[in-house]
Design brief:
Helices cover about 30% and strands about 25% of the residues. It has 16 helices and 18 strands.
Length: about 475
C-alpha cells in the first residue's frame, strides 16, 4: 500500500468486496500468517474486529487512519455506483455472479479473465480503460472457465478453438445479457464478457452529443427513403448506440425495419432483430439477401466487413431501401476510400451514400479536480499547434468524486458529411481531397471538435492526442 497515491495491490484489494469496504469503512493493509490487517476510521474497534472475524474467518487486526484518507482509498480502489441502495452483506462463494453484478453497477462494459505463466487476473473496462480488479489462483482458473462455459452454453471439452456464447442475467430488478467470447492462448483460455443492456429507453438521439447544426444535418440525411447511412469509428466509439437512436427515430407503425446484428445489444419494440450466427452460415451478406424478400423499408446491418456485404448493401439501397450500417475507418471521408478499396465502384457509392458519419467517445475531465495550466508545445504532436487564442488547457488530477482517475464520464464527438451534388461529382471522379470543401461548408471534423473540447476545458490534450495527429 502506498499512502501517497492511495493505491492498494490487487491481491489485498480483492480480500473484500466494494460493499464490505464501504459499509465497514475498512481498507486491507496486510495479509500474514492467517491474519488480516485493515485500516479504518471507526472508533468501535472491538465490535468491528469481532464482526469481521466472523465474516472473513480470519484473525483481524485494525489500524486507525484518518477519515479523509479512508475516503480516498475507498473512492480509488472500491468504485461503487453512486446513490445505489446497499444490498445486504452475505459472504458467498458465488463470486462470479457477484463480480458480474459489481461490474454492472460501476458502469463497466467488459470483464476480462486472463491467464499467464505465473498468475491469472480479472480486469474491468471502465470509460474505455482497463482496470485490474482481481487476482485468481492459477489452480482455480480452469474451474472458473468451465463455470462460465456452462452458463454460456459452450462446449467445456473444446479448449483448442474460439467459442462464442450468451448469458442472460435476471435478478428480478434487472434483466440484461452478457456476450461470452472464449479465446485459446498460450497458457489457457482467455474469456471476455461483454455486458449488454436491454434497456433502450435511455437512448435518445438528442442526447448523444451532436451539436445543433450536426443534428439538423443528420436528421435531414436520414429522411431519405432510400440510400446508405454509414457510421465509422473504432470498436467502443458508440457507433451502435447512434444506430439504435436513429432506428428509434425512424420506427413508426407504417415502416418495416429489419436488423442483422452481432450481438443484439438492445431490444427495440416494433423492430425485427436477427442475431448473426456465422457458424451455421447466417452472415451479414446472406441475411441481406433474405431481408430483400421480407418487404423491408429500412435495413440495419451491424457492420460492413467485406465486399460481399458492401455490394449487398448497395444493391438494397438501389432497390428502394434505406440501409444503415457501420464501418471501421478513421474519418467520415475515409469511408469512401475504404469502400473503393473493397471493390465498390465509385459511381455506385456516389449515387447510394447519403451521409457519412465518424465518431469517437472522449473521456470528460472531472469538474471537481481538473487543473488549468499554460500550453506547452512539447505536450502537442510534432508539427501541430493549437490556435493562438487557446493559451491554456486543463489536465487530469484525480479526486474522490472521480475515483482518482481525473475523468468522469464520456462525450461523443462527430464528423458528419452529407453527400450533396458537389461531393457526388468528386466521388465519381475519385477526387478524395476535400479539406477546403469542409472549411467552406463549415463542417466540423473530429480534429476541430477535439480542439474545441480542449479550449472549453471539457477534456485534456492527452485524451484527444491521437485525433490531433490526423
Amino acid at each position: 500500500m502506498d499512502i501517497k497515491d492511495f493505491h492498494i495491490k490487487t491481491e489485498l484489494q480483492q480480500l473484500i468486496n466494494a460493499d464490505q469496504a464501504h459499509h465497514y469503512r475498512i481498507i486491507p493493509k496486510q495479509q500474514q500468517n492467517g491474519s488480516l490487517s485493515f485500516l479504518t476510521d471507526t472508533e468501535e474497534i472491538p465490535v468491528l474486529q469481532t464482526e469481521l472475524g466472523i465474516i472473513l474467518g480470519k484473525e483481524i487486526k485494525l489500524v486507525v487512519e484518518s477519515s479523509e484518507n479512508i475516503q480516498k482509498y475507498l473512492y480509488k480502489n472500491y468504485r461503487k455506483k453512486e446513490n445505489s441502495t446497499a444490498k445486504e452483506l452475505h459472504y458467498t462463494n458465488d463470486f462470479l455472479m457477484d463480480m458480474i453484478q459489481e461490474a454492472k453497477n460501476i458502469g463497466s462494459s467488459d470483464i476480462h479473465f486472463e491467464i499467464f505463466e505465473d498468475k491469472s487476473r480479472v480486469r474491468f473496462r471502465i470509460d474505455g480503460k482497463l482496470m485490474e480488479r482481481f487476482l485468481i489462483p492459477i489452480e482455480e482458473y480452469p474451474t472458473i472457465v468451465n463455470r462460465i462455459k456452462i452458463i454460456g452454453q459452450l462446449d467445456i471439452s473444446e479448449k483448442r478453438l474460439p467459442q462464442d456464447g450468451r448469458i442472460n442475467i435476471n435478478t428480478g430488478t434487472e434483466d440484461y445479457d452478457i456476450r461470452v467470447s472464449v479465446l485459446p492462448t498460450l497458457f489457457g483460455e482467455k474469456i471476455v464478457l461483454r455486458i449488454l443492456s436491454k434497456d433502450a429507453t435511455i437512448i435518445n438521439i438528442n442526447n448523444l452529443g451532436f451539436t445543433e447544426l450536426e443534428l439538423k444535418r443528420y436528421k435531414e440525411s436520414i429522411k431519405n427513403p432510400n440510400g446508405i447511412i454509414l457510421i465509422s469509428g473504432p470498436t467502443g466509439s458508440g457507433k451502435t448506440t447512434t444506430l439504435y437512436a436513429t432506428l428509434k427515430l425512424l420506427n413508426t407503425n407504417d415502416t418495416n425495419i429489419l436488423t442483422i446484428e452481432d450481438p443484439i445489444e438492445y431490444t427495440l419494440e416494433g423492430i425485427n432483430q436477427v442475431q448473426l450466427k456465422e457458424n451455421i452460415g447466417l452472415d451479414f451478406s446472406k441475411s441481406l439477401k433474405t431481408f430483400l424478400r421480407q418487404d423491408p423499408d429500412i435495413i440495419m446491418v451491424g457492420e460492413i466487413r467485406d465486399v460481399a456485404t458492401a455490394n449487398m448493401a448497395v444493391r438494397a439501397s438501389l432497390t428502394g431501401h434505406l440501409v444503415l450500417s457501420t464501418i471501421h475507418t478513421n474519418s467520415a471521408w475515409a469511408t469512401i476510400s475504404r469502400l473503393i478499396d473493397m471493390g465498390v465502384p465509385p459511381f455506385l457509392i456516389a449515387v447510394t451514400l447519403k451521409v457519412s458519419v465518424a465518431q469517437r467517445l472522449i473521456r470528460k475531465l472531472c469538474v471537481h479536480c481538473k487543473q488549468a495550466e499554460n500550453i506547452n508545445q512539447e505536450q502537442l504532436p510534432e508539427n501541430f499547434s493549437l490556435p493562438e487564442e487557446i493559451n491554456k488547457h486543463y489536465k487530469a488530477i484525480g479526486c474522490e468524486k472521480c475515483y482518482h482517475t481525473g475523468y468522469d464520464g464520456r462525450k461523443a464527438i462527430y464528423e458528419i458529411i452529407p453527400i450533396n451534388k458537389e461531393l457526388i461529382d468528386k466521388i465519381k471522379k475519385n477526387e478524395l481531397e476535400i479539406d477546403e470543401y469542409l472549411k467552406t461548408k463549415k463542417i466540423a471534423t473530429l480534429k476541430s471538435n477535439a480542439i474545441e473540447l480542449i479550449a472549453s476545458g471539457i477534456t485534456s490534450i492527452d485524451e484527444v492526442y491521437s485525433l490531433l495527429t490526423n
